[in-house]
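Technical annex B. To support the medicinal chemistry partners, we prepared a structural model of the target in complex with uridine-5'-diphosphate, based solely on the information shown next.
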Amino acid sequence: MARKVVLVTGGAGFIGSHLCLRLFDEGNRVICLDNYFTGRRENFGDRYIELLHSGRFEFIRHDVIEPIMLEVEEIYHLACPASPVHYQYNPVKTIKTNVVGTYNMLGLAKRVKARILLASTSEVYGDPEMHPQKETYWGNVNPIGIRSCYDEGKRAAETLAMDYHRQHKLDIRLPRIFNTYGPNMSVDDGRVMSNFICQALRGQPITIYGDGKQTRSFCYVADLIEGFRRLMETNFHEPVNLGNDSEIDMLQLVEAIQKGIGRPLQVIHEELPQDDPVRRRPDLTRARELLDYRPSIPLEEGLKHTIRFFQAQLGVD
Ligand code: NAD
Ligand code: UDP
């Protein structure tokens, strides 16, 4: 693949940091743009100094709700808090990030004729009535609930991207990302993987919201990044589900973590948040046919890496 100047917004976050390193290791010049709301430079770990000295890596502190002028060839637009705890902290800011931020990045892509990938989400399907979810499903989203700043924000972002594509021939990519986990999630992220693992490592009870029968399908971050890279190299402009299609409920997730950590875990049940989707699993047919995308890292292995990461973060065994 030809080497390029690539902008990654939200590049200091969980997924963004893995993506920046992958792009850098492929020989590209990488601009990592972030407002550091949930992201951190520490996510680059012991590669940080190497990146700074490479002459091919740049950090820009910037908020995507403000326009920015940069000369780039490709944009991965990831900037947006992804954990319900963080995106509900300042919901007006979340929807502004999704709408105004995406508008700014699409405008930049149009000006410099860059290809742009928008990190969309399985949340566009809301609490889905179709299972598993195909890209052709229009979703079941509450427009005025506590998740709407994120769900409807991402739906509007997809609309903007498609309209830029139709109206201005912008070269867009629209991955719909399903629950992704791995190293570099922050300890206080609030999503289920980091909560459960950190609670387990600290000897605290595991907080299951509701009865724990709700399902998700967890994708290890390296598999997702592979999907991003393959999608970016196609010329397909419509949404593509990316994730892992092995579906488990939260009680099974506790069991898997218990096995990974090797000691019994105590569980408590807390109230289920409003509009929490009951079931979620991607139909990956499109990604398989278009990209030959086959997530290869099973939960057991992904958990091993993730548990090791959180052990180091917390300084515990
Ligand atoms: P994250 O919170 O770790 O990363 C988001 C990054 O964006 C952080 O570095 C944050 O500081 C930055 N950011 C937030 N608002 C910004 C703004 N206004 N301007 C500039 N930077 C800003 O979350 P993540 O899990 O890495 O998610 C990355 C992207 O992938 C998000 O767009 C998210 O919606 C999408 N996504 C993630 C998942 C998942 O399971 N992790 C699922 C679906 C979609
Ligand atoms: N969840 C839970 N305990 C927690 C955090 C989350 O039981 O401490 C549940 C949550 O209610 C949801 C699932 O785990 O049903 C996944 O939640 P997460 O916030 O990770 O992602 P999302 O709901 O956005 O898929």
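Notes passed to the chemistry partners:
DSSP finds ten helices and 14 strands in the chain.
The domain at 5-185+219-245+281-296 is CATH 3.40.50.720 (Rossmann fold).
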